[in-house]
Write a structure and sequence with these properties.
The protein is α/β, with parallel strands linked by helices. The protein contains eleven helices and 21 strands. The strands form six sheets. It has a six-stranded mixed sheet, with helices on both faces. The two termini are 44 Å apart. The protein binds zinc ion.
Length: 447
């Protein structure tokens, strides 16, 4: 049993009121830095005093933590890997009786889930995080939000969206993991104005309506909050699936980026030019392969230190996602940096004749094209160590000519994989064997 009396005071941000920090989004860089430094040092003190994992880590590597005085000193701290989280109990910073919610996340793909323990403070923090994220996309208390993310089975996303919507005083429809027809009926029945869900699911709902001679564009839906899958390429242009969704629903699509471990959402504002960082909720770094910070605009791995978490606080968590930061002032007036779309997973990066490419970038070139039905990518290792990329594509219509696919890929991603045409049923069966987060499965790594 842990001795609760040894805990130091909680991190500084325990009052998660939107009013307190909302103005920070528009503050000058110096002001943001000042507040963030205070929150960072408080987070560090709390974590290092209470987390068995970090206590042991820093005892072993003998970093003089007294030297950590400002934000830039974060580079001296050790990175936390997804696989470290298997030692769940070692990360717990409070007594078990303080834990009110348990979330599950898969630590590495295909492995057993890891527990993330949340205090009531952490739930309030999640609610605040989503409240401001939704508000950033222009959602308010006049909206009715259809949440198509599971709120049960220990998922964090669904409960976070629900709590955020409630805190915003929107009207929330917990549609969860219902079928396309159930979501569609609810949209009509309750006059939903916003859908929160993965883009492929929004497409399925719309397509269901169209197949039943109804019109998604004629509903009250005005905003689509896209989770879990990209909607833009690295130059912030809408991917074909996203353009298709906007047309289908006559609505605007907004991207958000989040994960259970980082417990923060980066949502796009009205300008829709990347998700604004949340300085009061986390420190976001972009690191190269050697763990060094890159300049704004350069691509690297997203590493996040979530601030204000009390159940299982983390330091410099390696998300495995690749993106870059933008520092130019946003037209919405916010001064915070923005994060570009997630370009792919670090461990999914493919090497092709000196070029690096992500599987989702290849598929994104084709999705939305009338001739392309569905597809997925498989990668194997060649004898010389390079990657052999196979695109399995199901096409619409009778013609099975693939030259147009090669042309598009050569022009857009400079990669032409081996292409195998398969029938629609096989493609759908493979792609829609939803993983636990109900995302499509479009990449199979056999390296
Ligand atoms: Zn903005």
């Amino acid at each position: 049993m842990k001795n609760t009396t040894s805990f130091v005071s909680l991190p500084a941000i325990t009052d998660f009121s939107a009013k307190k920090f909302a103005s920070l989004q528009f503050a000058e860089a110096d002001e943001i830095k000042k507040i963030q430094t205070k929150l960072f040092l408080s987070h560090l003190k709390f974590t290092l005093n209470n987390s068995p994992f970090y206590k042991k880590l820093y005892k072993d590597i003998k970093i003089n933590l007294k030297q950590i005085k400002q934000l830039s000193d974060i580079k001296h701290l050790t990175l936390t890997q997804k696989s470290d989280l298997f030692l769940t109990k070692e990360f717990l910073c409070v007594d078990n009786k303080e834990i009110v919610d348990v979330c599950l996340t898969s630590a590495t793909s295909g492995s057993m889930p890891t527990i993330i323990s949340l205090t009531s403070n952490d739930l309030s923090r999640l609610a605040y995080n989503e409240e401001l994220a939704f508000a950033m996309a222009g959602i308010n208390d006049n909206d009715t939000m259809l949440i198509c993310a599971a709120i049960d089975r220990c998922f964090m996303a669904g409960i976070a969206y629900f709590l955020g919507g409630v805190k915003l005083k929107a009207r929330v429809l917990r549609s969860g993991s219902g079928s396309a027809s159930q979501h569609w009926e609810l949209i009509k029945l309750a006059d939903a104005t916003v859908i929160v869900g993965v883009p492929s699911l929004m497409y399925k709902i719309g397509q269901y309506a169209i197949d039943n001679n109804e019109a998604p564009a004629a509903t009250h839906i005005k905003k689509l909050i896209a989770i879990g899958e990209p909607t833009k390429d690295e130059n912030l242009n809408l991917l074909p699936i996203a353009s298709e969704l906007e047309k289908m629903w006559s609505a605007k699509i907004y991207s958000t980026y989040a994960s259970s471990e980082i417990a923060t959402t980066f949502c796009e504002c009205s300008a829709r030019r990347g998700g604004h960082l949340r300085p009061e909720l986390n420190i976001t770094e972009i690191l190269d392969n050697d763990g060094n910070p890159v300049k704004d605009g350069e691509k690297g791995e997203v590493v996040v230190t979530p601030l204000g978490v009390t159940g299982m606080p983390l330091i410099r968590f390696k998300t495995g996602d690749i993106s870059y930061l933008m520092n130019e002032k946003c037209s919405c007036g916010r001064t915070t940096k923005r994060i570009a779309p997630i370009l792919g997973r670090k461990n999914q990066m493919l090497k092709y004749k000196g070029t690096t490419v992500f599987p989702n970038a290849i598929l994104a070139c084709l999705e939305g094209d009338q001739r392309f039905h569905n597809g997925y990518i498989e990668v194997k290792k060649n004898k010389d160590g390079t990657d052999h990329i196979l695109l399995y594509a199901a096409l619409c219509g009778e013609k099975h000519d693939t030259s147009w696919i090669s042309e598009i890929l050569r022009a857009k991603v400079r990669v032409v994989p081996e292409i195998k045409i398969i029938d629609k049923e096989k493609a759908d069966k493979q792609v829609y064997q939803f993983d636990k987060k109900r995302k499509r499965m479009t990449f199979f790594d056999l390296r």
